[in-house]
């Protein structure tokens, strides 16, 4: 049974925030939470920063229900996130990193979705993409659109799309805590693909609601994990392959080859794009050859499922403007 809004003395949503040296964007992030003005949202912050600047920013937000702890011994974001979830009292969890933002109306959209489909493991939405100055660069949608603004997805149609590419920004999902715990949360060995792995585990556990309205902003900037992590390209590639290998077996035998082909092409393209950020263009041609080997039907599926244009164009715009 959905308990959103049923217990007035209990938080209904926990925002878990793993922070590390995030003072540049943290104030704006917390302001976006304050703008939603919901006293029944608890914010659990675990801060491993090298100084106290983030702590001082957090102290300015007494209006928010914040549970803050300073843990310089916990560096990985996955470890801090899992620990924050273990402390949560709310039945729903959402992740928020120090550089991302909520958009107005997010809470109402999510609450309405879960009231309509209380058994869903998670609710996801599109994201706006912004640069380091907060300027809009594009909209990142999920390949899950149906005629209705809110739709429910499960099984292979969801799994194959998600295996092809993680199309969910980390701030977008709201997840039932019971389902988070049932799948053991984030794999702490995965610094880059832990969220993708989590979404695939949740997709195998239950249905996912897709509300086709952007509710968060995902920021691209030179210090982001995607950019800094891309400099370790071998590990970057290894972690993506680990997730594909781990979850491809969840697809029925007759469609596993189809699913793996899409996923392998996507990994190659992601590696090429990440390498290009570091000005290493050697993986670009092998990725292009993989793309060219796809049939027209498979290429169309790859382009739709991967959202490659929606993901790449904003980053190109940011680089051309000097914001990346």
Summarize the structure.
The protein has 324 residues and is of the alpha/beta class. It has helices at 23-34, 53-59, 77-87, 106-116, 155-164, 177-182, 194-205, 225-229, 233-247, 253-277, 284-293, 296-306, 308-320, and strands at residues 13-19, 41-47, 65-70, 92-95, 101-102, 122-124, 127-130, 136-140, 150-153, 174-176, 208-211, 216-219.
CATH topology tier name of the largest domain: Spore Coat Polysaccharide Biosynthesis Protein SpsA, Chain A
What's the overall geometry?
globular
Order of helices and strands: EHEHEHEEHEEEEHEHHEEHHHHHH
Treating each run of at least 4 consecutive H or I residues as one helix, how many helices? Answer: 13
Q: Which architecture of the largest domain does the CATH hierarchy give at level 2?
A: Alpha-Beta Complex
Whole-number count of domains: 2
- CATH class assignment of the largest domain: Alpha Beta
User: What is the mean predicted local confidence, pLDDT?
Assistant: 92
Strand ordering within the main sheet: 3-2-1-4-10-6-11-9
Spatial extent as radius of gyration = 19 Å
- Which structural class fits the helix and strand makeup? alpha/beta
The helicity comes to: 40-55%
DSSP strand count: 12
For the record, give the distance between the C-alpha atoms at the N and C termini, rounded to a whole number: 45 Å
Beta-strand fraction estimate:
15-25%
In CATH terms, the superfamily of the largest domain is: Spore Coat Polysaccharide Biosynthesis Protein SpsA, Chain A
Low-confidence stretches: none
């Amino acid at each position: 049974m959905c308990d959103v809004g049923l217990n007035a003395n209990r938080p209904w949503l926990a925002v878990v925030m793993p922070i590390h040296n995030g003072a540049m964007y943290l104030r704006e992030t917390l302001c976006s939470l304050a703008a939603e003005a919901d006293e029944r949202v608890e914010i659990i912050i675990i801060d491993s920063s090298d100084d106290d600047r983030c702590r001082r920013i957090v102290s300015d937000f007494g209006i928010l229900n914040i549970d803050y702890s300073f843990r310089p011994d916990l560096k990985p974001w996955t470890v801090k996130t899992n620990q924050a979830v273990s402390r949560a009292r709310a039945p729903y969890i959402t992740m928020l990193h120090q550089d991302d933002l909520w958009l107005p109306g997010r809470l109402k959209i999510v609450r309405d979705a879960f009231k309509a489909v209380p058994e869903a493991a998670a609710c996801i939405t599109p994201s706006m993409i912004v640069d380091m100055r907060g300027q809009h660069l594009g909209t990142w949608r999920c390949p899950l659109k149906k005629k209705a603004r809110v739709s429910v997805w499960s099984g292979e149609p969801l799994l194959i799309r998600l295996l092809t590419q993680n199309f969910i920004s980390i701030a977008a999902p709201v997840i039932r805590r019971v389902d988070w715990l049932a799948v053991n949360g984030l794999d702490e060995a995965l610094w880059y693909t832990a969220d993708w792995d989590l979404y695939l585990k949740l997709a195998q556990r239950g249905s996912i609601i897709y509300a086709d309205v952007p509710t968060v902003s995902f920021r691209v900037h030179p210090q982001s994990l995607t950019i800094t992590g891309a400099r370790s390209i071998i590990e970057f590639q290894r972690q993506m392959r680990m997730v594909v290998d781990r979850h491809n077996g969840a697809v029925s035998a007759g469609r596993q080859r189809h699913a793996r082909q899409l996923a392998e092409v996507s990994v190659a393209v992601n590696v090429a794009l990440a390498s290009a950020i570091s000005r290493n263009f050697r993986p670009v041609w092998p990725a292009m050859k993989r793309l060219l080997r796809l049939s027209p039907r498979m290429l169309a599926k790859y382009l739709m499922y991967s959202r490659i244009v929606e993901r790449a164009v904003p980053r190109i715009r940011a680089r051309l403007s000097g914001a990346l």
